[in-house]
């Protein structure tokens, strides 16, 4: 098993747990509220009546830190979960090897013998340990562990403690050493593997690297430098936010047998595993994400693997045929930019090189998901940008050429096609509204309606009044409905579906449609995809408006305001929607989209409508927007720096991207041209000079502002 780790949380520190936000809510208080039974059990275990007694005892504080860390998305939780594999192997070996009398005595008596126990028993416990060590190794690839150790970072101490507590754990990291070559001093990079010995880390291997360690994307580079330290025929890739369960670990040897089973023409090279999302109880958003993800990693991937045969690797706990992959370019492509979503390229690579990806539902691994709106949006932005880069990749091109017609279509709709469809939905909303508006402003709409009424052409009247319904919020929830129905019955599914609608899941999914289409479209036009760190903490704080503005201004707020302006102007000048009922029928789904894009960040923000917080947020935002940028001023301190960061992609874009940006921006001038002749000031004059005068007014306003 291999886990890439950078600088995420290992074990929560005392100050992390005790630190209160502006509402007086700390992580430990939050955990007590969402896990009340487990908190009571913990207090009983350490024989404390009150919380104050826990903080007074050093040993209890350490136990408390671990208790909290095993309920977050920490390295400590992942390591604990993966080391269950070793426990399961020892238990299975005991059942295979022990004599009848030893089995009657029990596993614990044999596995942990006292000093005075018989020698034969101790030798059996040594055999169990040896067999488990032969069959299972766990490498955590903590890229900057060496730097953390030198700087005295507590995370390095936490990682060392994990190695001491779990002797089977190995840590791989990159060591930077300055070596003298004649007169020159140059930096040399080594890949190092360490284990714990007598409460210190002991070096096992050191491999000199040919150059700097990180040239491409961070996570795949991290995996690539450590893959040489893995052993065995199968390799399970585990993310930093995963967990495992002992009863699932017992099934691992059944799963590994699948490599020898008949799965069609080709031998399986990646065994897909389902996931259990454990963050669903944290908030309503986490629940939506957990349901959406659960439907994807179960019902979705089952269909992708069989009958469609287009399942790839999605960063889930899949088990790779290690020998197959390390002789065919490894499990992680790491080119900067293009391999942003590096996981899926492992699946592409495997399929292109005559591999076979299967999916198995009888074993699952725990997985944590993002829990706050901003974290979810960052994650979706990263995935959308990754899909934008996949469109340009030669892997997708080759798959498209070499698949048969049906697999080609299946591949398209389950990878980049989903994002292209999302983008087309948003584009169609724009086309529909601008088309309606131009018809209304040019007088064509009233002329067509007049003709239709005169001739009694009711079909034409009906066609002019046709509405566009964009209600993706309900559609996105359908796979979840099916999955919950299959696993827990359709009554439960219906109940959950209704509760999700009441908790505004339609608002959330419509909002995330905006995130996907914006970032995907921008990557297609201009490139510039980059990794976005989402942060995996608990969301127990109110997010300031300035932060939300920086995040959603270009992707949602500006677009929402534009669509709202179009809807208002169409209501004033349109001829089809003569009464309010017709107007509501015609534009209700558009208004839902607009309101969602403008107000979802407030709805899903803790204490989003508390008056004092709104006042403080307004002060903070006005201070930020009136600040001038400068060299070295970060985006969260000044509007100007943020603006330059937002326009960065336009500097590196090509001629094609710039051309499209200009063409798309021309829509505002046509809007201005149409609306000028409907204002009272033009007094019915249709001359082009009216349009020229409107430009003079704009120039005058800009000069006054300047």
TrEMBL record:
GO terms for biological process: (1->3)-beta-D-glucan biosynthetic process. The chain crosses the membrane at residues 416-439, 460-481, 493-513, 580-604, 659-676, 688-705. Residues 1-52, 58-658 form the Glycosyl transferase domain. Keywords: Membrane, Transmembrane, Transmembrane helix. GO terms for cellular component: 1,3-beta-D-glucan synthase complex; plasma membrane. It comes from the Eukaryota. InterPro entries: Glyco_trans_48_dom. GO terms for molecular function: 1,3-beta-D-glucan synthase activity. Pfam families: Glucan_synthase. This is Glycosyl transferase 48 domain-containing protein. It comes from Zizania palustris (Northern wild rice).
């Amino acid at each position: 098993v291999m886990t890439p780790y950078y600088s995420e949380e290992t074990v929560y520190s005392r100050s992390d747990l005790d630190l209160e936000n502006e509402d007086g809510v700390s992580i430990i208080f939050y955990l007590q509220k969402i896990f009340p039974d487990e908190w009571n059990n913990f207090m009983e275990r350490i024989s404390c009546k009150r919380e104050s007694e826990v903080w007074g005892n050093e040993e209890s504080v350490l136990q408390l830190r671990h208790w909290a860390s095993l309920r977050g998305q920490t390295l400590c939780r992942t390591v604990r979960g993966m080391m269950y594999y070793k426990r399961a192997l020892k238990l299975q070996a005991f059942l295979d090897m022990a004599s009848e009398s030893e089995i009657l005595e029990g596993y614990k008596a044999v596995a942990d013998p006292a000093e005075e126990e018989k020698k034969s028993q101790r030798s059996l416990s040594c055999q169990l340990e040896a067999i488990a060590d032969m069959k299972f190794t766990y490498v955590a690839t903590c890229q900057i562990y060496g730097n953390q150790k030198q700087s005295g970072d507590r995370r390095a101490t936490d990682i060392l403690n994990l190695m001491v507590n779990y002797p089977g754990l190995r840590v791989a990291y990159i060591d930077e050493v300055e070596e003298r070559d004649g007169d020159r001093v140059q930096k040399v990079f080594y890949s190092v593997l360490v284990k714990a010995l007598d409460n210190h880390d002991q070096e096992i291997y050191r491999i000199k690297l040919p150059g700097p360690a990180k040239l491409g994307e961070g996570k795949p580079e991290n995996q690539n430098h450590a893959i040489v330290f893995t052993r065995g025929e199968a390799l399970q890739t585990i993310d930093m936010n995963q967990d495992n369960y002992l009863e699932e670990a017992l099934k691992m040897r059944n799963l590994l047998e699948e490599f020898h089973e008949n799965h069609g023409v080709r031998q399986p090279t990646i065994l897909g595993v389902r996931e259990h999302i454990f963050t669903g109880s944290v908030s309503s958003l986490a629940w939506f994400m957990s349901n959406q993800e659960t439907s994807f990693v179960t019902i979705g991937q089952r269909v992708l693997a069989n009958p469609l045969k287009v399942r790839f690797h999605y960063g889930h706990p899949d088990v790779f045929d290690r020998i197959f992959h390390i002789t065919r370019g490894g499990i992680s492509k790491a080119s900067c930019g293009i391999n942003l979503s590096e996981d899926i390229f492992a699946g592409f690579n495997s399929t292109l090189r005559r591999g076979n990806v299967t999916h198995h539902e009888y074993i699952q691994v725990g997985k944590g998901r993002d829990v706050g709106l901003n974290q979810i949006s960052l994650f979706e932005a990263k995935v959308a940008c990754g899909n934008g880069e996949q469109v340009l990749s030669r892997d997708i091109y080759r798959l498209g050429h070499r698949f048969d017609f049906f697999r080609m279509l299946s591949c398209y709709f389950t990878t980049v096609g989903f994002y292209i469809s999302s983008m087309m939905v948003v584009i169609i909303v724009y086309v529909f509204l601008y088309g309606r508006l131009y018809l209304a402003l040019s007088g064509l709409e009233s002329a067509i309606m007049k003709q239709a009424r005169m001739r009694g052409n009711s079909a034409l009247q009906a066609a002019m009044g046709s509405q566009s319904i964009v209600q993706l919020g309900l559609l996105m929830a359908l796979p979840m409905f099916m999955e919950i129905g299959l696993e827990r019955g359709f009554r439960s599914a219906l109940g959950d579906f209704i509760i999700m609608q009441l908790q505004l899941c339609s608002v959330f999914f419509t909002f995330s449609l905006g995130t996907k289409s914006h970032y995907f479209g921008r990557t297609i036009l201009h490139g510039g995809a980059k990794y976005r760190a989402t942060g995996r903490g608990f969301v127990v704080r109110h997010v300031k408006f300035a932060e939300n503005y920086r995040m959603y201004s270009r992707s949602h707020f500006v677009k929402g305001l534009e669509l709202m302006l179009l809807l208002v102007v169409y209501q004033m000048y349109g001829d089809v929607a003569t009464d309010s009922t017709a107007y509501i029928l015609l534009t209700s789904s558009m208004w839902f989209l607009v309101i969602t894009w403008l107000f979802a960040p407030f709805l899903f923000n803790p204490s989003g409508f508390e008056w004092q917080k709104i006042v403080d947020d307004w002060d903070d935002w006005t201070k930020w927007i009136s600040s001038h940028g400068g060299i070295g001023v970060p985006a969260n301190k000044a509007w100007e720096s943020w603006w330059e960061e937002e326009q960065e992609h336009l500097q590196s874009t090509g001629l094609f991207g710039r051309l499209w940006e200009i063409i798309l921006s021309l829509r505002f001038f046509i809007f201005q041209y149409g609306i000028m002749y409907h204002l009272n000031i033009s007094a019915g004059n249709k001359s082009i000079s009216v349009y020229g005068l409107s430009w003079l007014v704009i120039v005058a306003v800009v000069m006054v502002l300047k």
